[in-house]
Amino acid sequence: MTDRRKLPRELALPRRTLLRGLVGGAAVTLGLPLLDVMLDDGGTRHADGSPLPLRLLTWMWGNGCRLDQWVPAATGPNYTLSTELEPLAAHREKFTVLSGYRNPVAGRRGHHDGMAALFSGYPFIGLDPMGAPYASKFGGRSLDQQAVDWIDPQTMFRSLQVGVTKRHVTNQGPTLETMSHRGPDQPLGMERDPQKMFDKLFGAFTAPGGGGPKPEADPDAALRIAALDAVSRDAKRLHSRVSANDRKRLESHLDSLFTVQKQILAIPPECDLPPPPGKLDYEPDGTEPLAAINAVMARLVAVAFACDLTRVVSFMFTGPSGAQQFAMLPPSAFPEFPGAPDYSHADQHMVSHMNLPYEQLYMHRATVFCMQNLAKLLDELDAVQEGTGTLLDNSCVLAGSDVCEGWSHSENDYPILVAGRAGGRLRANVGHHRSSSGESIIDIGFACLKAVVPNPELVTEYGGDGSGYSGRTTTPCSAIFT
Amino acid sequence: MRFAGWVPGTSLAAALVACGVVGACSSDAEPPVEPPGLEADAVPAEPALRRLLARQYVRSVAHLLGDAAAASAKPPADTQLNGFSAIAASQLSMNDSLVDAYESSARAVAASAVTDSARIAALAGCKSTASADEACLSSFVERFGRLAWRRPLSAEERDDLVALGKQGVLARGTFVGGVELVIAALLQAPSFLYQVELGVAPSTRNDIRVLTGYEMATRLSFLLLGRTPDSALLDAAGAGELDVAAGVRTWAEKLLETSESREALRGFFAELFVLDGIETLARDPELFPDFSPEVAESMREEALRIVDDVIARDAPFTEVLTTTRTFVDARLANHYGLSVEGDGWRAVELPDEQGRTGLLTSAAVMTKQAHGTSTSATYRGLFVMERFLCTTMPPPPPGVITTLPPSSAAPTLRERLEVHRSDPSCGACHYLSDNLGLTFERYDAVGRYRATENGAPIDPSGEVDQLGAWSGPRELAERLAASEGLHSCLLRQLHRYATGHVEVDGEWPALNELTKRWEARGGSFRPLLVDFASSELFRRVGAMTP
Known about the structure:
Chain A is an alpha/beta fold. Chain A contains twelve helices and 15 strands. In chain A, strand 14 (465-466) and strand 15 (469-470) form a beta hairpin.
């Protein structure tokens, strides 16, 4: 069915062996949960000697923190949690707080600078030709997508993009819309609807209503593959006629056509599915059930990791410069400020810019709420046993925000933490590390990349240059990566 | 009227184009007399594959296969760059999720479409229930393929899809089983999902390429009807009618007379005036108890009706800013504090005491350009700057302190923003936006009228160097309508939307000439659209990087 000779070069990668397997009559096997029988005696490797899968999860919340409430007073393993970190107390042995890092690609646009540095290492590309409304794109492949390339996972989904709030900035380009970018022109949109995320993960092999796996694969699979082959041939015919830039775009298109074919051929995973979440959307007064959506998404991510449906996830709890609203923070939650204005339906970004006592207490409590929701995700990951540890132990979770403090768009000392041990690749018992030498924030992303790839020694540099800035680094953050 | 600047190579190019890459030839008939071209040359940007916008996809499916099938169409949502989703559609690439969504959508549409056997028979030009009827299958592929891909299929393409269809017939045991598979493939193929505008280089020039008749039909139809071209327009393309400006002009005029064109233009104006998404905004229910998704929907409709009305009357487009007439339903009348009877939409005069003026003070714009709990002079000012003057504002410098005093110390926003205006580090950028935006302070965060804020009277006057001084929104609207850059800006916005890119240097001479012509002809919108669509600016693309 698939004309292999005509596949573009970039498809001639190992992933292709899967499809070849099917074409030869064998099925593609994806999504095996890790069972004890598959492990060696020590529970640290598969019985065949291959290592356990490592996962990367990038996680963000918008509009930063209050540094005086975020940065712990002490450093080292025995530091006392700050008030904004307090919600994560149950996991304190499993995360490192990193403070005092410098953003080398800062100075142009607050929220954009932070997204680019934390999640890609490349300066962003600004787009405001001829006074057109401003937008920006990532300057290079994002951290999670670089991990996808190095891991080259044989999983149903190369990566997943998960969002919680639907109140996010949509008019300033991909930099603020998503954390995942295959390149400047290929942002990967975040799925912000729990039911759609459920359907995406399990829809291909669950009976309607969310019962168990279907007994047989999709009977139409062969026809769908044939139609996609015809579609690919159309793309290839067009490929020879278009501009150099459009050729690249069509190659991305072809690559994705191939991936979707692979997904159609996947065998159902043998894992326990969570119940379908149903519709979780705005309430009649416009309130968004953020914690409920987050809880469902966190569970889905844990199941997707546990079933090896993917190994790479980006997770946008609230958005950069975001218009998210914190309905759980009405004036009644602030008895110390009688008669205070009601911001439970205000966009957080607006409140962030009011450097007044009540407004900044509101911002602080919003950060606490965000950390409660990160804790929920860590709970889910830590609840899944895998070998001698948990899913969290076999993951690297990089969590941060687009600015340091929202009120000033500050770009020094971003709130950052790294959770999980990446199967032992990340240092334990670091606690709080404060950089005294102004190390680059981009080194942190580099450490996370090296922590999850199969051969870290092959990854010798990270980040890149552009627009007169350089984020390039060859030194992974030494506080967390040995 | 004949302009001297007609590029001699173009007619030749048109003839070449007609026998272009897809192997279909225009008729050999003598081309019509050349219409007025532009004095100015146009060297447009390099062509880029442009993904259909979600609404264009749905309307195209509806046109091709009917409303029932279109109800199954679920294209992914659009994203915007530089103010228009067409620009993002021309720059961004596909990814796994998008391809997956298009595949699902195409299958759902195909499954729904084949339940209408009469329509399938009409599309095929033959009625077959015999699973082995290859001639009828081939006829379907050829006829429907031409409509879906907006050009005749090559022999290779036809054979490819017939073979696919036969595979479907075989697997499903029915003729429509094959038709369904063909439809699903056609509707997720790049030739459907992208506007392909490669053009052909004329023999005399290597810096431009002239769009083929079929490419022109596609461009014209998506711009003016918001959907794929119909069979008659494709016939005209095949006959060479769109190879010359006069033919494009004739067709543009014809398409603009249809009711579909109103809906298509609404797509442009909804983006230009940032009207989409208003129904998902949240407003503080205690401050704004009557705000709801329903009233928000009425607000959006009102704003579009203001524009529709100005266009339909062929009035100067600036009336969108200056008109005192608007349209309300019962919900919106209540919102504005007007008393009307009955439930339908009707035209009303805006009360003088509210000082409202056209779209600028419409509830939709005032609501979209505000925060959840309060107004925003900066958003509203920036809206005027970006949308009508094509200027934008630099970002706040990182580390800037943005503390405004609380309302107990400064009751009106004008007083609170004094810090922006008096601090030179803020004022340089906020000068324009805040001075423009404060004029709208008498309309709250849902566009209701108010004379005071926190008990203090609101001063709606303003002044900026570019426009002079004004006493309130109505005078500001007059200033904007008369301002030098307004028509140029609106044309640039149309061009961005219609071509999917922000104007490049080689396009300025033609843009300037079209602007002058538009102003000289009284500034109504439909003649501009016809001039624009038949201009070299719209009929060409730039050279391609090999």
